[in-house]
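Protein details
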Amino acid sequence: MATPNFDDLRKKLDETQTYPTVYMFKFIMGAEHRKIALIENLFGDDAEIYTKESDKGKYISITVKEVVMSTDEIISIYAKASQIEGVMFL
């Protein structure tokens, strides 16, 4: 699976963020325990992780708040998440 181009995100983050900052990551995927664990493992022990299942339990959204030190750190997490099949990020 090819890594998406993050140039637009990088530009927006560079224009709007100052570091360190608490950044909120959002992901949507099928409610599969393995994929949920893979996403959660992208973050440190201090990250705040919230999950919410869809009404029928087929999908899950994951919101993570974590202190990041740079745009590169944010992009790196999204790049790793993009390698997990079926994961969408907002």
Remarks:
- The longest helix spans residues 71-82.
- The chain has a mean pLDDT of 94.
